[in-house]
Specification:
Elements (H helix, E strand, L loop, with lengths): L1 H16 L7 H20 L30 E2 L5 E2 L18 E4 L6 H7 L4 H7 L14 E4 L4 E5 L6 H7 L6 H8 L9 E5 L36 E2 L3 E2 L5 E4 L8 E4 L5 E3 L4 E6 L11 E8 L2 E8 L1 E2 L6 E2 L4 E4 L13 E8 L2 E3 L2 H4 L2
Antiparallel strand pairs: 1-2, 3-4, 5-6, 7-8, 9-10, 10-18, 11-17, 12-13, 12-16, 13-14, 14-18, 15-17, 18-19
């Protein structure tokens, strides 16, 4: 038995040595290093976590030509806009205006974000106070715009309303005592208007038949219910993150987006208010995006949300910041349950930007 084992060992040693027979020590070392490099290259080409990524990475659709490399010298200004210099420097600001609503006459160069900056308000607050502005993209010089005294919303008191109900309905974090002090009354009167500091305009979802494409209708969830918004994170500049989960792939060449994965399929929200440009809910390919939503936020900014399991908005619909627009999924260029994630893109003036400076991932 020992003799046979020894013979096997000798034969194995001989077979191992044959490829290197006749080579000098330095040549043998070079051959071994080359072989080891090839093995390491093959190992590194296998991504064991690829199931959480977009397969292939690059999207072959109309938005690919928007992609650019990481922009340099760009900063986020007070409105969250990425610019090389802050365009709002030197603008007159009108702060501490008391509790009165004032009128602003649109001047040359005014945009919704510039006006919001001047009065230290969110753009949503101005839009809620001016129903005729639409998404605020088309202001006319000389146009009069109502400017509320603070962030919040003016509402008409309904039957059975009280301060506690209004706080819940308009989701403000301002205390009841502060609201009473601001409005000068500890009671509310049906039919009268009150100002809900920090409040958000209520969103009414339209439940209609499921559809897809540019003519898609707003739809309820598969069980007739739109999922609740997750505990989203607000970031400096007036943006919020689109969903919760783990960042599985960042912005790089061929993948001009962030991927956020969560197998529990949380809801996805609009990172800022805007108008839905495109919305698909038909489980189609759509250039690899699958069910996706594209929102125009004004001033050159758009955001894209791809691979959704369900979409709850339709083209032309105005959505508020934090409104649930979709549910995380793996439609399009993604395969398998572990591929459930959101593919999120930030566009500015026709270019795809790295979302990190704004959203802090």
């Amino acid at each position: 038995m020992r003799a046979r084992l020894k013979l096997h060992a000798q034969n194995a040693e001989k077979r191992f040595a044959e490829p290197w027979h006749g080579l000098s020590p330095s040549q043998r070392l070079f051959q071994r290093v080359t072989a080891l490099s090839v093995v390491l290259l093959l190992v590194n080409s296998v991504n064991l976590t690829q199931a959480n990524y977009d397969t292939g990475g690059i999207y072959f659709d109309a938005y690919d030509d928007l992609a650019i490399e990481e922009p340099t010298g760009m900063v986020a200004d007070d409105e969250g806009y990425l610019t090389k210099i802050t365009p709002l420097e030197g603008q007159a600001r009108y702060l501490n205006r008391g509790k009165e609503t004032v009128n602003h006459e649109v001047q040359p160069g005014d945009t919704l974000s510039v006006i919001a900056y001047k009065y230290d308000l969110s753009m949503e607050t101005i839009l809620w106070a001016n129903s005729g502005l639409g998404n605020g993209n088309y202001l006319k010089v000389g146009q009069a715009i109502k400017i509320p005294p603070a962030d919040g919303v003016t509402v008409k008191v309904g039957k059975g309303d009280n301060w506690d109900k209004l706080i819940g309905k308009y989701k403000t974090k301002i205390s009841k005592e502060e609201l009473i002090a601001w409005n000068g009354s500890d009671t509310v009167v049906e039919g009268k208007e009150v100002f809900v500091l920090g409040g958000r305009k209520a969103v009414e979802y339209v439940a209609t038949a499921k559809g897809g494409g540019r003519g898609a209708k707003s739809v309820p969830g598969r069980n007739g219910i739109i999922p609740e918004a997750p505990s989203i994170i607000s970031v400096p500049g007036g943006w919020v993150r689109p969903t919760v989960g783990s960042l599985t792939q960042g912005y790089r060449w061929g993948h001009y987006a962030f991927d956020i994965a969560d197998r529990s399929q949380p809801a996805i929200v609009a990172v800022r208010a805007g108008t839905v440009v495109e919305a698909y809910n038909d489980n189609g390919w759509h250039g690899g995006y699958g069910n996706f939503v594209l929102i125009d936020h004004g001033d050159g900014y758009k955001t894209l949300y791809a691979h959704n399991a369900e979409v709850y908005v339709s083209p032309g619909e105005y959505v508020g910041q934090g409104q649930v627009i979709a549910k995380m999924g793996n439609t399009g260029r993604v395969y398998g349950a572990t591929g459930i994630h959101l593919h999120f893109e930030l566009h500015y003036n026709g270019k795809k930007l790295n979302p990190s400076p704004v959203f802090g991932w």
